[in-house]
Design goal:
The complex is a heterodimer of chains A (362) and B (303). Chain A is built from 13 helices and 2 strands. Chain A is mostly helical and 362 residues long. A two-stranded antiparallel ribbon of chain A has the order 1-2. With 303 residues, chain B is mainly α. Chain B starts with a helix and ends in an 11-residue tail after the last helix. Classes of the chains: A mainly alpha (362), B mainly alpha (303).
Chain lengths: 362, 303
């Protein structure tokens, strides 16, 4: 007996309907894979899925927490997607986020008594600059030294974690903080204003939505965005047209770094209110998934970041209500990206089943 | 024991997780496939092996299960990146996140438990030499990893399989046109990479530091990927690079021996900083990379 395998055949043009179906089908596939995993581990799947996918929308508070988490994911993912489209793989957003948080914290740590309306805007600005500067190292290494940006940006993330630990255990540790690895609590003027009264949602969400609109204009409507995309899709054509490859790399990494740094600043100046070890729960890595799941398109990312935020909030609830290990969220995230990549294949390809040939029949 | 003796006796064991994972990735990359999921495959191998050993399964069984886990995840990678022609970078990242997540998921109830490592095997006579004697007292996995390095060097230099792997990586179209199954060979190379990463993780969690903690691989898989670039895709140089990182990971203890006051966080980030610096130095030699690089590395192959 011979196994009849279908062949992948390139479509003449990319399928628009498949492009829209892919993320939803990926969710179904990932849910199915995780369902079987829960069954083998004696976790009640129905309780997990209820907590993960429904519970975040059952109360106004939970929903507002989803909006709160959407902010950083949206900011980081929009920045990363610009680079990914130019085939610049910045996977060190986690480190850029941490550097943004550190730089922003410098103001309240060194001037804990300062007051004035200037404080939180300068913190956000400093955060964006810090994230951008951290990404600039990767950029320099890539453009000038020809080094792989994936490895350099990732290594810098691991260094950033150590830098954060150093500051929190050493010079920036709160002297009144019972020896906990955390900075002083920030003063009132160092906190970003809230957007929705009675919730923790702050105006950084507005910045994130604004960045999404700007990213849409930049990537879909501007000539520089066009040059970036050509550089990603057809590097030789871009070089022939005289589009600078180095410029594209610098721009991709700086945009990604500034956005991630801004997100880090908004996190310490927002819901957390101090610098601590757990400022990021893997936003920098989750944003990579958000970017892909949104089809690397600004509008798609708007939706996928909201979904991923819900998954975070649902994961917290599932930990309590369904006894799901917190790593369950990471497993779900990983399988979601993998499922998306499986289904995204069919945007540009279709399956061709070999027809049983007539000669086989007697 | 002075610092030099300490480094000489501990270097090879510290280098082994790097070496095993890097050798596996080297084979996959020589065949033209960039699998960035090494960190996740190592983490999964580490968790599975630890669970087996902790529950009384024995080290050998632990290594087998870790190898199978690594192969399983790498075949998942192969299905998506080679079978379905998805972007290799994105697929590798997905596998990495999935593997690390699964390791934390399975290892949750074993957090900070310990097991016993493996016995050391001394080479007679040589291990009695002063100063360098420690180099010849190692556990069996270290000896096997040295054998594996030699074996792979021989394979690439002298055997048909080695030549075939290189052909598939350099020019898949040509290899296909003379009748070699490019995809099948690449799947095999990727599976070998998964096997080695799984074993590397198992060594880290059940022999080198016999305990389980979430995130214990701590970037070693990523450094292994970088080591393949450092070694410009040559087995001998990858081995030397692994030894360098073995030494670096001992830096913390050595500094304690000498009594210097250096922040522990700086010591912990030393391997990462050295990776960044060496990557810059080696990569800026564009001619070297062009001569030794793999022509079709990371490119999707469409027949």
């Amino acid at each position: 007996m011979t196994l009849i395998l279908p062949r992948l055949v390139a479509r003449e043009r990319a399928s628009l309907s498949m492009m829209i179906i892919a993320p939803f089908a990926a969710l179904a596939l990932a849910a199915f894979a995780n369902f079987t995993l829960y069954l083998t581990l004696d976790v009640d799947p129905s309780a997990v899925f209820y907590a993960l996918l429904i519970e975040p929308f059952t109360s106004w508070y939970a929903f507002s927490e989803v909006l709160l988490k959407t902010g950083p994911l949206l900011l980081i993912a929009q920045g990363l997607a610009i680079g990914f489209r130019a085939k610049v793989f910045n996977i060190g957003a986690e480190g850029q986020f941490i550097l943004g948080a550190i730089c922003a914290s410098a103001i309240p740590v060194y001037a804990p008594q300062a007051s004035g309306i200037w404080i939180w805007p300068s913190m956000l600005l400093l955060g964006a600059l810090g994230g951008g500067a951290w990404a600039a190292i990767t950029s320099f290494w890539r453009v000038r030294l020809n080094a792989n940006e994936i490895l350099v940006s990732l290594m810098l993330s691991l260094v950033a974690v150590q830098l954060l630990n150093y500051l929190l255990l050493g010079p920036w540790k709160d002297p009144m903080g019972f020896n906990f690895p955390q900075s002083v609590m920030f003063q009132y003027d160092a906190m970003v204003p809230t957007l929705l009264p009675g919730t923790r949602v702050n105006i950084s969400l507005l910045f994130a939505v604004g960045l999404s609109l700007a990213a849409w204009v930049f990537m879909q409507r501007s000539f520089i965005g066009f040059k970036l995309q050509v550089g990603g899709l057809a590097p030789r054509a871009a070089a022939y047209a005289g589009f600078s490859q180095g410029g594209a790399i610098w721009m991709s990494l700086l945009i990604g770094g500034c956005a991630a740094g801004f997100a880090g600043a908004a996190e310490v100046a927002g819901p957390i209110g101090q610098l601590q070890r757990s400022i990021s729960t893997g936003y920098g890595y989750a944003a990579i998934i958000v970017a892909y799941l949104g089809g690397l398109h600004p509008i798609g990312i708007l939706l996928s970041s909201f979904f991923m935020a819900a998954l975070y909030i649902g994961g917290d609830t599932a930990m309590v209500s369904a006894d799901l290990p917190i790593a369950g969220v990471r497993v779900f995230q990983g399988s979601l990206l993998l499922s998306y990549l499986i289904l995204a294949t069919f945007v540009r390809h279709r399956l061709d089943w070999p027809r049983p040939s007539a000669e086989i029949k007697p | 024991m002075n610092a030099i003796e300490f480094i000489l006796s501990g270097m090879l064991a510290a280098a082994t997780p790097f070496l095993l994972a890097a050798l596996g990735e080297l084979v996959a990359e020589r065949a033209g496939v960039l699998n960035l999921g090494v960190e996740g495959m190592m983490a999964l191998g580490a968790a599975l092996a630890f669970i087996v050993v902790y529950n009384g399964g024995g080290h050998f069984e632990g290594f087998i299960v870790a190898a199978l886990g690594g192969i399983f995840v790498s075949l998942l990678f192969a299905f998506v990146a080679l079978g379905l022609r998805a972007n290799q970078v994105a697929t590798g990242l997905a596998i990495g996140i999935l593997g690390a997540g699964l390791s934390a998921f399975f290892g949750k109830s074993y957090e900070s438990f310990t097991v016993t490592g493996l016995n050391q095997i001394q080479i007679p006579v040589l291990s009695n030499i002063p100063v360098v004697g420690g180099l010849f007292t190692q556990d069996c996995i270290v000896w096997l990893s040295l054998l594996a390095s030699a074996g792979l060097w021989y394979m690439f230099a002298y055997t048909k399989i080695g030549l075939l792997l290189r052909a598939v990586g350099e020019n898949p179209k040509a290899a296909q046109s003379i009748g070699y199954p490019v995809i099948a060979i690449r799947v095999g190379a990727v599976a070998f990479g998964g096997l080695m990463a799984g074993i590397a993780g198992a060594y880290a969690s059940t022999v080198y530091t016999p305990l389980w903690a979430d995130g214990m691989i701590a970037g070693r898989g990523w450094i292994a990927v970088a080591l393949v670039v450092f070694g410009t895709w040559m087995v001998g140089r990858v081995f030397l690079g692994a030894c360098l990182f073995g030494m670096l990971s001992l830096a913390g203890t050595v500094v304690q021996l000498t009594g210097l006051a250096i922040p522990s966080q700086l010591l912990a980030s030393l391997p990462y900083l050295v990776t960044i610096i060496v990557l810059g130095i080696i990569s800026s030699n564009r001619r070297l990379l062009k001569l030794n690089g793999i022509a079709s590395l990371g490119e999707t192959y469409e027949r």
